[in-house]
Protein backbone atom coordinates (compact mmCIF):
# COMPACT_ATOMS: atom_id res chain seq x y z
CA UNK A 1 0.00 0.00 0.00
CA UNK A 2 1.37 3.41 -0.90
CA UNK A 3 2.06 5.84 1.92
CA UNK A 4 0.11 9.08 1.90
CA UNK A 5 1.89 12.21 3.02
CA UNK A 6 0.52 15.63 3.86
CA UNK A 7 1.00 18.50 1.41
CA UNK A 8 3.25 20.26 3.94
CA UNK A 9 5.57 17.29 4.14
CA UNK A 10 5.72 16.92 0.31
CA UNK A 11 6.56 20.61 -0.13
CA UNK A 12 9.17 20.39 2.60
CA UNK A 13 10.84 17.39 0.94
CA UNK A 14 10.78 19.02 -2.52
CA UNK A 15 12.48 22.16 -1.24
CA UNK A 16 15.00 20.11 0.66
CA UNK A 17 15.79 18.05 -2.48
CA UNK A 18 16.38 21.17 -4.55
CA UNK A 19 18.62 22.67 -1.89
CA UNK A 20 20.53 19.46 -1.50
CA UNK A 21 21.91 19.81 -5.07
CA UNK A 22 24.34 22.41 -3.77
CA UNK A 23 25.45 20.42 -0.74
CA UNK A 24 28.96 19.13 -1.34
CA UNK A 25 29.34 15.43 -0.85
CA UNK A 26 32.63 13.97 0.13
CA UNK A 27 34.05 11.52 -2.34
CA UNK A 28 34.42 9.01 0.47
CA UNK A 29 30.77 9.33 1.72
CA UNK A 30 29.32 5.92 2.27
CA UNK A 31 25.64 5.34 1.43
CA UNK A 32 23.66 5.53 4.70
CA UNK A 33 20.06 5.09 5.88
CA UNK A 34 18.15 6.62 8.80
CA UNK A 35 15.09 5.27 10.73
CA UNK A 36 12.99 6.26 13.78
CA UNK A 37 11.88 4.10 16.69
CA UNK A 38 8.25 5.32 16.44
CA UNK A 39 5.99 6.03 13.47
CA UNK A 40 3.09 7.61 15.42
CA UNK A 41 2.92 9.48 18.73
CA UNK A 42 -0.06 10.92 20.61
CA UNK A 43 0.68 13.77 23.02
CA UNK A 44 -1.40 16.04 25.20
CA UNK A 45 -0.70 19.76 25.30
CA UNK A 46 2.40 20.33 27.46
CA UNK A 47 3.51 16.67 27.26
CA UNK A 48 6.95 15.63 25.94
CA UNK A 49 8.33 12.51 24.28
CA UNK A 50 11.58 11.43 22.65
CA UNK A 51 12.28 10.03 19.18
CA UNK A 52 15.43 7.99 18.66
CA UNK A 53 17.06 7.91 15.22
CA UNK A 54 19.14 4.94 14.02
CA UNK A 55 21.75 5.38 11.23
CA UNK A 56 23.17 2.51 9.23
CA UNK A 57 25.78 1.40 8.75
CA UNK A 58 26.71 1.49 12.43
CA UNK A 59 29.29 4.07 13.30
CA UNK A 60 28.07 6.62 10.79
CA UNK A 61 28.08 10.19 12.21
CA UNK A 62 24.78 11.26 13.84
CA UNK A 63 25.62 14.75 15.01
CA UNK A 64 24.71 16.19 11.60
CA UNK A 65 21.13 14.86 11.58
CA UNK A 66 18.49 17.49 10.97
CA UNK A 67 15.18 17.45 12.88
CA UNK A 68 12.23 19.37 11.46
CA UNK A 69 8.58 19.83 12.52
CA UNK A 70 6.05 20.39 9.75
CA UNK A 71 3.97 22.46 12.22
CA UNK A 72 6.14 24.05 14.95
CA UNK A 73 3.10 25.74 16.49
CA UNK A 74 1.73 22.29 17.30
CA UNK A 75 4.90 20.26 18.04
CA UNK A 76 8.35 21.60 18.73
CA UNK A 77 11.39 19.30 18.21
CA UNK A 78 15.04 19.59 19.28
CA UNK A 79 17.43 16.71 18.69
CA UNK A 80 14.57 14.23 18.91
CA UNK A 81 12.89 15.74 21.99
CA UNK A 82 9.25 16.59 21.24
CA UNK A 83 6.90 18.91 23.10
CA UNK A 84 3.17 19.25 22.40
CA UNK A 85 2.31 22.94 22.23
CA UNK A 86 -1.22 23.14 20.87
CA UNK A 87 -3.99 20.87 19.67
CA UNK A 88 -3.33 19.61 16.11
CA UNK A 89 -1.06 17.32 14.05
CA UNK A 90 2.45 17.52 12.63
CA UNK A 91 5.07 15.39 10.97
CA UNK A 92 8.46 15.19 12.65
CA UNK A 93 11.17 14.37 10.10
CA UNK A 94 14.82 13.47 10.65
CA UNK A 95 17.22 13.81 7.67
CA UNK A 96 20.80 13.09 6.82
CA UNK A 97 21.92 16.32 5.10
CA UNK A 98 24.58 14.45 3.13
CA UNK A 99 22.08 12.07 1.59
CA UNK A 100 18.78 13.79 0.91
CA UNK A 101 17.03 10.54 0.18
CA UNK A 102 17.80 9.31 3.68
CA UNK A 103 15.02 10.52 5.97
CA UNK A 104 12.31 9.13 8.29
CA UNK A 105 9.09 10.64 9.62
CA UNK A 106 6.77 10.27 12.62
CA UNK A 107 3.16 11.45 12.67
CA UNK A 108 2.32 13.32 15.91
CA UNK A 109 -1.17 14.04 17.22
CA UNK A 110 -1.54 16.62 20.00
CA UNK A 111 -4.75 16.55 22.07
CA UNK A 112 -6.16 18.77 24.72
CA UNK A 113 -5.63 17.32 28.22
CA UNK A 114 -8.52 15.27 29.58
CA UNK A 115 -10.37 17.45 32.04
CA UNK A 116 -11.41 16.35 35.55
CA UNK A 117 -14.41 17.95 37.19
CA UNK A 118 -16.03 17.34 40.58
CA UNK A 119 -18.76 19.08 42.59
CA UNK A 120 -18.87 19.27 46.40
CA UNK A 121 -22.51 18.07 46.68
CA UNK A 122 -24.60 15.90 44.39
CA UNK A 123 -27.84 16.09 46.40
CA UNK A 124 -29.26 18.89 48.56
CA UNK A 125 -32.43 19.52 50.52
CA UNK A 126 -33.15 23.22 51.11
CA UNK A 127 -36.03 25.04 52.78
CA UNK A 128 -37.81 27.74 50.80
CA UNK A 129 -35.95 31.05 51.08
CA UNK A 130 -32.59 29.56 52.00
CA UNK A 131 -29.31 29.70 50.09
CA UNK A 132 -26.43 27.29 49.60
CA UNK A 133 -23.15 27.43 47.68
CA UNK A 134 -21.89 24.73 45.36
CA UNK A 135 -18.20 24.57 44.49
CA UNK A 136 -16.53 22.86 41.55
CA UNK A 137 -12.97 21.61 41.14
CA UNK A 138 -11.85 21.44 37.50
CA UNK A 139 -8.52 20.50 35.96
CA UNK A 140 -7.12 22.04 33.85
CA UNK A 141 -8.51 25.21 35.36
CA UNK A 142 -11.12 27.03 33.32
CA UNK A 143 -14.37 28.93 33.68
CA UNK A 144 -17.61 27.15 34.60
CA UNK A 145 -21.11 27.83 33.31
CA UNK A 146 -24.01 27.23 35.73
CA UNK A 147 -27.56 26.29 34.80
CA UNK A 148 -30.78 25.37 36.64
CA UNK A 149 -33.29 22.98 35.07
CA UNK A 150 -36.05 24.94 36.80
CA UNK A 151 -35.13 28.50 37.85
CA UNK A 152 -38.60 29.01 39.33
CA UNK A 153 -37.67 26.44 41.98
CA UNK A 154 -33.92 27.02 42.33
CA UNK A 155 -31.95 29.90 40.89
CA UNK A 156 -28.17 29.68 40.53
CA UNK A 157 -25.51 32.35 40.06
CA UNK A 158 -21.83 31.39 40.10
CA UNK A 159 -22.67 28.36 42.20
CA UNK A 160 -24.84 30.19 44.73
CA UNK A 161 -28.27 28.55 44.98
CA UNK A 162 -31.45 30.37 45.98
CA UNK A 163 -34.42 28.16 46.90
CA UNK A 164 -37.54 29.83 45.46
CA UNK A 165 -40.42 27.41 46.03
CA UNK A 166 -41.20 23.77 46.79
CA UNK A 167 -40.05 21.37 44.09
CA UNK A 168 -36.96 19.80 42.53
CA UNK A 169 -34.37 21.21 40.14
CA UNK A 170 -31.12 19.90 38.71
CA UNK A 171 -28.20 22.30 38.84
CA UNK A 172 -25.59 21.70 36.13
CA UNK A 173 -22.04 23.06 36.09
CA UNK A 174 -20.36 22.80 32.67
CA UNK A 175 -16.73 23.45 31.77
CA UNK A 176 -16.39 26.45 29.46
CA UNK A 177 -14.93 24.27 26.70
CA UNK A 178 -17.91 21.94 26.98
CA UNK A 179 -15.75 18.92 27.76
CA UNK A 180 -17.22 18.04 31.14
CA UNK A 181 -20.24 18.70 33.33
CA UNK A 182 -21.43 17.77 36.83
CA UNK A 183 -24.85 17.99 38.47
CA UNK A 184 -26.52 18.43 41.84
CA UNK A 185 -30.17 17.55 42.44
CA UNK A 186 -31.80 20.10 44.75
CA UNK A 187 -35.05 19.40 46.55
CA UNK A 188 -36.78 22.44 48.02
CA UNK A 189 -39.12 21.83 50.94
CA UNK A 190 -41.44 23.97 52.97
CA UNK A 191 -39.54 26.24 55.34
CA UNK A 192 -41.22 24.84 58.46
CA UNK A 193 -38.68 24.76 61.27
CA UNK A 194 -37.89 21.62 63.24
CA UNK A 195 -37.51 22.44 66.93
CA UNK A 196 -36.19 19.93 69.48
CA UNK A 197 -35.58 20.37 73.20
CA UNK A 198 -32.81 18.80 75.26
CA UNK A 199 -35.50 17.28 77.51
CA UNK A 200 -38.98 15.99 76.76
CA UNK A 201 -39.73 15.54 80.48
CA UNK A 202 -38.34 17.23 83.57
CA UNK A 203 -38.93 17.17 87.31
CA UNK A 204 -38.42 20.16 89.62
CA UNK A 205 -38.72 20.96 93.27
CA UNK A 206 -40.71 23.99 94.37
CA UNK A 207 -38.52 27.06 93.87
CA UNK A 208 -35.94 25.08 91.89
CA UNK A 209 -34.87 25.87 88.32
CA UNK A 210 -33.39 24.11 85.34
CA UNK A 211 -32.72 25.19 81.76
CA UNK A 212 -34.28 23.87 78.58
CA UNK A 213 -32.29 24.41 75.40
CA UNK A 214 -33.81 24.40 71.93
CA UNK A 215 -32.21 23.26 68.70
CA UNK A 216 -33.81 24.85 65.62
CA UNK A 217 -33.20 23.52 62.10
CA UNK A 218 -33.14 25.21 59.69
CA UNK A 219 -32.31 28.48 61.41
CA UNK A 220 -35.26 30.80 61.79
CA UNK A 221 -35.42 33.80 59.42
CA UNK A 222 -34.15 37.06 60.88
CA UNK A 223 -37.70 38.36 61.40
CA UNK A 224 -38.79 35.22 63.34
CA UNK A 225 -37.87 34.48 66.95
CA UNK A 226 -38.35 31.68 69.50
CA UNK A 227 -41.07 32.08 72.12
CA UNK A 228 -41.47 30.14 75.39
CA UNK A 229 -44.87 29.40 76.92
CA UNK A 230 -46.15 27.54 80.00
CA UNK A 231 -49.55 25.85 80.10
CA UNK A 232 -49.72 26.68 83.82
CA UNK A 233 -47.39 29.51 84.91
CA UNK A 234 -48.47 29.09 88.52
CA UNK A 235 -46.99 25.57 88.53
CA UNK A 236 -44.01 26.15 86.21
CA UNK A 237 -42.87 29.52 84.92
CA UNK A 238 -40.50 29.92 81.97
CA UNK A 239 -38.24 32.70 80.76
CA UNK A 240 -35.86 32.22 77.86
CA UNK A 241 -35.83 28.47 78.45
CA UNK A 242 -35.19 28.70 82.21
CA UNK A 243 -38.03 26.93 84.02
CA UNK A 244 -38.90 27.38 87.70
CA UNK A 245 -41.13 25.23 89.88
CA UNK A 246 -43.79 27.39 91.52
CA UNK A 247 -46.13 24.86 93.15
CA UNK A 248 -46.77 21.13 93.22
CA UNK A 249 -48.33 19.91 89.98
CA UNK A 250 -47.49 19.66 86.30
CA UNK A 251 -47.32 21.93 83.26
CA UNK A 252 -46.31 21.75 79.62
CA UNK A 253 -43.55 24.07 78.45
CA UNK A 254 -43.64 24.91 74.73
CA UNK A 255 -40.92 26.44 72.59
CA UNK A 256 -42.53 27.84 69.44
CA UNK A 257 -41.39 29.89 66.43
CA UNK A 258 -43.11 33.27 66.42
CA UNK A 259 -44.52 32.62 62.94
CA UNK A 260 -45.92 29.27 64.12
CA UNK A 261 -43.70 27.31 61.73
CA UNK A 262 -42.43 24.88 64.39
CA UNK A 263 -42.69 23.95 68.08
CA UNK A 264 -41.56 21.46 70.74
CA UNK A 265 -42.78 20.63 74.25
CA UNK A 266 -41.49 19.42 77.60
CA UNK A 267 -43.74 17.94 80.30
CA UNK A 268 -42.65 19.23 83.70
CA UNK A 269 -43.63 17.81 87.09
CA UNK A 270 -43.07 19.79 90.27
CA UNK A 271 -42.68 17.49 93.29
CA UNK A 272 -41.73 17.90 96.91
CA UNK A 273 -38.36 16.26 96.33
CA UNK A 274 -37.73 17.64 92.87
CA UNK A 275 -37.51 14.13 91.42
CA UNK A 276 -39.80 11.81 89.48
CA UNK A 277 -40.05 8.52 91.36
CA UNK A 278 -40.81 5.38 89.34
CA UNK A 279 -41.45 2.56 91.80
CA UNK A 280 -41.14 -0.96 90.36
CA UNK A 281 -42.16 -3.49 92.97
CA UNK A 282 -44.38 -6.40 93.74
CA UNK A 283 -45.53 -8.55 96.62
CA UNK A 284 -42.35 -10.61 96.39
CA UNK A 285 -39.01 -10.76 94.56
CA UNK A 286 -40.53 -12.60 91.60
CA UNK A 287 -43.23 -10.00 91.07
CA UNK A 288 -40.65 -7.23 91.42
CA UNK A 289 -38.49 -8.80 88.69
CA UNK A 290 -41.58 -8.90 86.46
CA UNK A 291 -42.40 -5.22 87.10
CA UNK A 292 -38.82 -4.30 86.20
CA UNK A 293 -39.09 -6.37 83.02
CA UNK A 294 -42.35 -4.70 82.00
CA UNK A 295 -40.85 -1.24 82.43
CA UNK A 296 -37.66 -1.92 80.52
CA UNK A 297 -39.05 -4.19 77.81
CA UNK A 298 -42.64 -3.06 77.17
CA UNK A 299 -42.65 -4.42 73.62
CA UNK A 300 -41.24 -7.85 74.45
CA UNK A 301 -37.77 -9.28 74.01
CA UNK A 302 -36.12 -11.92 71.84
CA UNK A 303 -34.07 -13.12 74.81
CA UNK A 304 -34.47 -13.43 78.57
CA UNK A 305 -32.13 -14.44 81.40
CA UNK A 306 -33.45 -16.69 84.17
CA UNK A 307 -31.82 -16.87 87.61
CA UNK A 308 -32.84 -18.39 90.91
CA UNK A 309 -34.35 -16.01 93.43
CA UNK A 310 -33.19 -18.17 96.34
CA UNK A 311 -29.43 -17.68 96.15
CA UNK A 312 -27.15 -15.25 94.39
CA UNK A 313 -23.85 -16.89 93.27
CA UNK A 314 -24.83 -18.20 89.85
CA UNK A 315 -26.37 -14.90 88.72
CA UNK A 316 -23.81 -12.34 89.94
CA UNK A 317 -22.23 -12.26 86.45
CA UNK A 318 -25.55 -12.14 84.56
CA UNK A 319 -25.97 -8.40 83.86
CA UNK A 320 -23.33 -8.15 81.09
CA UNK A 321 -24.93 -11.21 79.46
CA UNK A 322 -28.38 -9.58 79.68
CA UNK A 323 -27.03 -6.35 78.20
CA UNK A 324 -25.40 -8.16 75.27
CA UNK A 325 -28.72 -9.76 74.32
CA UNK A 326 -30.94 -6.84 75.42
CA UNK A 327 -32.70 -9.17 77.81
CA UNK A 328 -34.47 -8.74 81.16
CA UNK A 329 -33.40 -10.82 84.16
CA UNK A 330 -36.31 -12.82 85.60
CA UNK A 331 -36.28 -14.83 88.81
CA UNK A 332 -37.62 -18.28 89.56
CA UNK A 333 -38.34 -20.28 92.69
CA UNK A 334 -37.85 -24.05 92.89
CA UNK A 335 -40.84 -24.14 90.57
CA UNK A 336 -41.50 -21.51 87.93
CA UNK A 337 -43.84 -18.87 89.48
CA UNK A 338 -47.05 -18.17 87.58
CA UNK A 339 -46.17 -14.46 87.46
CA UNK A 340 -42.90 -15.36 85.69
CA UNK A 341 -44.72 -17.67 83.28
CA UNK A 342 -47.12 -14.84 82.45
CA UNK A 343 -44.25 -12.44 81.81
CA UNK A 344 -42.46 -14.92 79.55
CA UNK A 345 -45.73 -15.30 77.63
CA UNK A 346 -45.88 -11.50 77.23
CA UNK A 347 -42.21 -11.12 76.29
CA UNK A 348 -42.34 -13.96 73.71
CA UNK A 349 -38.58 -14.71 73.90
CA UNK A 350 -37.13 -17.13 71.40
CA UNK A 351 -34.40 -18.13 73.85
CA UNK A 352 -33.80 -18.10 77.60
CA UNK A 353 -30.34 -18.28 79.16
CA UNK A 354 -30.44 -20.28 82.40
CA UNK A 355 -27.77 -19.22 84.91
CA UNK A 356 -26.52 -22.15 86.99
CA UNK A 357 -26.81 -25.90 87.14
CA UNK A 358 -29.80 -28.07 87.94
CA UNK A 359 -29.18 -27.60 91.66
CA UNK A 360 -30.11 -23.94 91.21
CA UNK A 361 -32.73 -24.21 88.44
CA UNK A 362 -34.14 -27.69 87.92
CA UNK A 363 -34.34 -29.68 84.72
CA UNK A 364 -38.13 -29.64 85.21
CA UNK A 365 -38.16 -25.84 84.77
CA UNK A 366 -35.99 -26.17 81.69
CA UNK A 367 -38.40 -28.72 80.22
CA UNK A 368 -41.30 -26.45 81.07
CA UNK A 369 -39.68 -23.60 79.11
CA UNK A 370 -39.05 -25.91 76.16
CA UNK A 371 -42.71 -26.91 76.33
CA UNK A 372 -43.58 -23.23 75.90
CA UNK A 373 -41.66 -23.23 72.62
CA UNK A 374 -38.63 -21.48 74.13
CA UNK A 375 -35.07 -22.57 73.33
CA UNK A 376 -32.94 -22.81 76.48
CA UNK A 377 -29.19 -22.60 77.00
CA UNK A 378 -27.80 -23.45 80.40
CA UNK A 379 -24.62 -21.68 81.53
CA UNK A 380 -23.16 -23.67 84.39
CA UNK A 381 -20.08 -25.03 86.10
CA UNK A 382 -19.28 -27.34 88.97
CA UNK A 383 -19.22 -24.32 91.31
CA UNK A 384 -19.99 -20.58 91.37
CA UNK A 385 -16.54 -19.77 89.96
CA UNK A 386 -16.88 -22.00 86.91
CA UNK A 387 -20.41 -20.71 86.34
CA UNK A 388 -19.11 -17.13 86.23
CA UNK A 389 -16.52 -18.24 83.67
CA UNK A 390 -19.19 -20.00 81.57
CA UNK A 391 -21.16 -16.74 81.50
CA UNK A 392 -18.02 -14.71 80.70
CA UNK A 393 -17.22 -17.02 77.78
CA UNK A 394 -20.76 -16.58 76.46
CA UNK A 395 -20.31 -12.82 76.58
CA UNK A 396 -17.23 -13.39 74.43
CA UNK A 397 -14.95 -10.64 75.77
CA UNK A 398 -11.33 -11.73 76.25
CA UNK A 399 -9.44 -8.42 76.22
CA UNK A 400 -9.61 -4.95 77.73
CA UNK A 401 -10.98 -4.75 81.26
CA UNK A 402 -12.02 -7.43 83.74
CA UNK A 403 -13.89 -7.21 87.06
CA UNK A 404 -13.14 -9.68 89.86
CA UNK A 405 -15.32 -9.96 92.97
CA UNK A 406 -15.52 -12.17 96.03
CA UNK A 407 -17.93 -15.00 95.21
CA UNK A 408 -19.44 -14.82 98.70
CA UNK A 409 -20.20 -11.05 98.69
CA UNK A 410 -23.14 -10.25 96.40
CA UNK A 411 -23.31 -6.50 96.98
CA UNK A 412 -20.07 -5.66 95.22
CA UNK A 413 -20.97 -7.63 92.11
CA UNK A 414 -24.42 -6.04 91.91
CA UNK A 415 -23.04 -2.56 92.61
CA UNK A 416 -20.83 -2.85 89.55
CA UNK A 417 -23.17 -4.99 87.38
CA UNK A 418 -24.94 -2.21 85.43
CA UNK A 419 -21.62 -0.47 84.79
CA UNK A 420 -19.90 -3.68 83.70
CA UNK A 421 -22.88 -4.49 81.50
CA UNK A 422 -22.87 -1.10 79.76
CA UNK A 423 -19.10 -1.21 79.23
CA UNK A 424 -19.12 -4.87 78.18
CA UNK A 425 -16.82 -6.01 81.00
CA UNK A 426 -17.08 -9.62 82.26
CA UNK A 427 -17.55 -10.18 85.99
CA UNK A 428 -15.82 -13.26 87.41
CA UNK A 429 -15.85 -14.61 90.96
CA UNK A 430 -12.93 -15.56 93.13
CA UNK A 431 -12.24 -16.98 96.56
CA UNK A 432 -10.62 -14.77 99.17
CA UNK A 433 -7.36 -16.65 99.64
CA UNK A 434 -6.64 -18.06 96.19
CA UNK A 435 -7.78 -17.70 92.63
CA UNK A 436 -9.79 -20.72 91.43
CA UNK A 437 -8.20 -22.79 88.67
CA UNK A 438 -11.08 -22.06 86.26
CA UNK A 439 -10.62 -18.31 86.73
CA UNK A 440 -6.83 -18.52 86.45
CA UNK A 441 -7.12 -20.52 83.22
CA UNK A 442 -9.59 -18.02 81.74
CA UNK A 443 -7.39 -15.04 82.61
CA UNK A 444 -4.21 -16.73 81.34
CA UNK A 445 -5.84 -17.64 78.02
CA UNK A 446 -7.18 -14.11 77.53
CA UNK A 447 -5.56 -10.74 76.93
CA UNK A 448 -6.98 -8.49 79.64
CA UNK A 449 -4.97 -5.34 80.28
CA UNK A 450 -6.78 -4.03 83.37
CA UNK A 451 -8.47 -5.67 86.37
CA UNK A 452 -10.80 -3.99 88.85
CA UNK A 453 -10.66 -5.83 92.17
CA UNK A 454 -13.67 -5.03 94.36
CA UNK A 455 -12.86 -4.98 98.05
CA UNK A 456 -9.88 -4.85 100.36
CA UNK A 457 -7.72 -7.71 101.55
CA UNK A 458 -10.49 -8.78 103.92
CA UNK A 459 -12.45 -9.82 100.83
CA UNK A 460 -9.77 -10.62 98.23
CA UNK A 461 -6.20 -11.29 99.35
CA UNK A 462 -3.05 -10.03 97.69
CA UNK A 463 -2.21 -13.56 96.58
CA UNK A 464 -5.18 -13.19 94.20
CA UNK A 465 -4.39 -9.58 93.25
CA UNK A 466 -0.81 -10.40 92.35
CA UNK A 467 -1.74 -12.88 89.62
CA UNK A 468 -4.23 -10.57 87.88
CA UNK A 469 -3.18 -8.13 85.12
CA UNK A 470 -2.73 -4.52 86.24
CA UNK A 471 -5.08 -4.95 89.21
CA UNK A 472 -6.64 -1.90 90.89
CA UNK A 473 -8.69 -2.16 94.08
CA UNK A 474 -11.92 -0.30 94.78
CA UNK A 475 -12.37 -0.48 98.53
CA UNK A 476 -14.69 0.65 101.30
CA UNK A 477 -15.31 -0.17 104.93
CA UNK A 478 -18.72 -1.73 104.16
CA UNK A 479 -20.99 -2.60 101.24
CA UNK A 480 -22.55 0.89 101.13
CA UNK A 481 -19.21 2.68 101.02
CA UNK A 482 -17.91 0.29 98.34
CA UNK A 483 -21.13 0.85 96.37
CA UNK A 484 -20.53 4.60 96.30
CA UNK A 485 -16.82 4.25 95.57
CA UNK A 486 -17.64 2.01 92.60
CA UNK A 487 -20.04 4.65 91.26
CA UNK A 488 -17.41 7.36 91.72
CA UNK A 489 -14.82 5.29 89.85
CA UNK A 490 -17.04 4.99 86.77
CA UNK A 491 -19.08 8.19 87.10
CA UNK A 492 -17.96 9.54 83.72
CA UNK A 493 -19.58 6.53 82.04
CA UNK A 494 -22.98 7.07 83.69
CA UNK A 495 -26.08 9.08 82.79
CA UNK A 496 -26.92 10.45 86.22
CA UNK A 497 -30.07 12.22 85.08
CA UNK A 498 -31.52 8.82 86.01
CA UNK A 499 -30.55 6.62 88.96
CA UNK A 500 -31.76 3.26 90.30
CA UNK A 501 -32.29 2.45 93.97
CA UNK A 502 -32.33 -0.99 95.60
CA UNK A 503 -32.10 -2.32 99.13
CA UNK A 504 -28.69 -3.33 100.39
CA UNK A 505 -30.27 -5.93 102.69
CA UNK A 506 -30.77 -8.66 100.06
CA UNK A 507 -29.76 -9.41 96.49
CA UNK A 508 -32.90 -10.21 94.35
CA UNK A 509 -34.16 -6.70 93.52
CA UNK A 510 -30.70 -5.40 92.66
CA UNK A 511 -30.08 -8.50 90.54
CA UNK A 512 -33.25 -8.03 88.46
CA UNK A 513 -32.73 -4.25 88.38
CA UNK A 514 -29.13 -4.46 87.13
CA UNK A 515 -30.34 -5.24 83.59
CA UNK A 516 -32.67 -2.21 83.55
CA UNK A 517 -30.02 0.07 85.09
CA UNK A 518 -27.62 -0.94 82.31
CA UNK A 519 -30.28 -0.26 79.70
CA UNK A 520 -30.71 3.23 81.19
CA UNK A 521 -26.91 3.79 81.18
CA UNK A 522 -27.34 4.35 84.90
CA UNK A 523 -26.26 2.62 88.11
CA UNK A 524 -27.71 1.20 91.31
CA UNK A 525 -27.40 2.93 94.68
CA UNK A 526 -27.79 0.49 97.58
CA UNK A 527 -29.75 1.83 100.57
CA UNK A 528 -30.16 0.84 104.18
CA UNK A 529 -33.88 1.41 104.71
CA UNK A 530 -33.42 1.64 108.47
CA UNK A 531 -30.49 4.02 108.56
CA UNK A 532 -29.52 6.08 105.53
CA UNK A 533 -25.72 6.06 105.39
CA UNK A 534 -23.93 9.41 105.33
CA UNK A 535 -21.67 8.30 102.47
CA UNK A 536 -24.79 7.70 100.35
CA UNK A 537 -26.41 11.02 101.28
CA UNK A 538 -23.21 12.89 100.50
CA UNK A 539 -22.93 11.24 97.09
CA UNK A 540 -26.50 12.25 96.29
CA UNK A 541 -25.77 15.84 97.32
CA UNK A 542 -22.59 15.95 95.24
CA UNK A 543 -23.42 13.91 92.13
CA UNK A 544 -27.18 13.43 91.89
CA UNK A 545 -28.19 17.07 92.12
CA UNK A 546 -29.36 17.02 88.46
CA UNK A 547 -31.12 13.66 88.71
CA UNK A 548 -34.72 13.79 87.43
CA UNK A 549 -35.88 10.16 87.38
CA UNK A 550 -35.38 7.75 90.26
CA UNK A 551 -36.23 4.07 89.68
CA UNK A 552 -36.97 2.36 92.99
CA UNK A 553 -36.85 -1.45 92.99
CA UNK A 554 -39.26 -2.90 95.54
CA UNK A 555 -42.23 -1.69 97.57
CA UNK A 556 -42.32 0.56 100.65
CA UNK A 557 -41.28 -2.19 103.05
CA UNK A 558 -38.03 -2.60 101.11
CA UNK A 559 -37.22 1.02 100.20
CA UNK A 560 -39.57 3.61 101.70
CA UNK A 561 -40.61 6.95 100.29
CA UNK A 562 -39.28 8.48 103.49
CA UNK A 563 -35.72 7.34 102.82
CA UNK A 564 -35.99 8.40 99.15
CA UNK A 565 -37.17 11.87 100.20
CA UNK A 566 -34.26 12.17 102.62
CA UNK A 567 -31.78 11.06 99.97
CA UNK A 568 -32.97 13.56 97.37
CA UNK A 569 -33.81 16.59 99.47
CA UNK A 570 -32.39 19.46 97.44
From TrEMBL:
InterPro entries from the UniProt entry: Bact_Sporulation_Assoc, Big_2, Cell_wall-bd_2, Invasin/intimin_cell_adhesion
Cited Pfam families: Big_2 (PF02368), CW_binding_2 (PF04122)
Signal peptide: 1-27
Record bears the keyword Isomerase: no
Protein keywords: Signal
UniProt lineage: Bacteria, Bacillati, Bacillota, Clostridia, Eubacteriales
Domain BIG2: 30-108, 113-185, 191-267
Superkingdom of origin: Bacteria
Statement: the UniProt record of this protein carries the keyword ATP-binding: no
Protein name: Ig-like domain (Group 2)
Amino acid sequence: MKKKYSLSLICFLLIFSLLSISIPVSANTTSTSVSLDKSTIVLTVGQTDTLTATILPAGSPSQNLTWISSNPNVVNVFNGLLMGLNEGTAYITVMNPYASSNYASCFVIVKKPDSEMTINKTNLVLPVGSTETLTVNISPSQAVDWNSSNPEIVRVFNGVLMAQKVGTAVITATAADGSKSVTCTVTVKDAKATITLNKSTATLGVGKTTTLTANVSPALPSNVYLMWQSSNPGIVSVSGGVITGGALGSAVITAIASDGSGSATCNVNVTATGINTIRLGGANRYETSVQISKNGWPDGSTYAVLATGNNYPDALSAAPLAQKYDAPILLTDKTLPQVTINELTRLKPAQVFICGGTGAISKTIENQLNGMGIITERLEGKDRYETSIAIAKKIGVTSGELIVVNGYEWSDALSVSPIAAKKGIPIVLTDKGSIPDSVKSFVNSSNFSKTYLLGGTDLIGNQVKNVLPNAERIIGSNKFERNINILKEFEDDLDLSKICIATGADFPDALSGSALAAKLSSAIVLLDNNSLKSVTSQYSADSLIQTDDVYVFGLQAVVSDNVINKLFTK
